[in-house]
Amino acid sequence: MRDVFSCPDVTEVGYYKTMLDAAGIPSFIRNENGATIGLIGAVFSPALCIVEDAQFDEALRILKSRQPQGPIRLDEWTCPACSEKNPPNFDSCWKCNAMRPGA
Fold first, then answer.
1. Which of 2, 37, 50, 96 is the most exposed place for a label (fewest CB within 10 A)?
2. Above 80 in pLDDT, residue 68?
3. SS (H, E, C) 5-67
4. Domains of the chain (ranges plus CATH)?
5. Predicted local distance difference test score (pLDDT) of residue 35
6. Distance CA 77, CA 63 (A)
7. Which percentage of the chain shows pLDDT scores above 90?
8. 32-56 as b/e, with b when 16 or more CB fall inside 10 Å?
């Protein structure tokens, strides 16, 4: 048994588990309820574990291929066409559909 991914958000850990399941790699989530009962710290964070150590490299390859590539945008942006404020995860304006600069 080896940990391949850990995150305080159990839904994200579950998402990556479905990828390993689809690839036929047996896995389980350790500390699945640690975050929901208010335990804080890396030792209590949900962790995705594979059962067979021999599948570690393949599991990492699969997980890395699906992780976000590039910076995560955390700031609101203002539409250049209509001056409306937009959430950071929108690539086009919610009001006028103009594209985000640089998107």
1. 37
2. no
3. EECCCHHHHHHHHHHHHHCCCCEEEECCCCCCCCCCCHHHCCEEEECCHHHHHHHHHHHHHHC
4. 2-66 (3.30.70), 71-103 (no CATH)
5. 56
6. 30
7. 57
8. eebbeeeeeeeeebbbbbbeeeebe
Place of tokens 């590539």: 69
Distance CA 48, CA 76 (A): 32
Using CA atoms, how far apart are residues 43 and 21, in angstroms rounded to an integer?
Answer: 24
Identify the DSSP state of 4.
Answer: E
Q: How confident is the model at residue 71 (pLDDT cuts 50, 70, 90)?
A: low
Residue 73 neighbours by CB distance under 10 Å: 15
In tens, the pLDDT along 56-65 reads 999 999 998 8
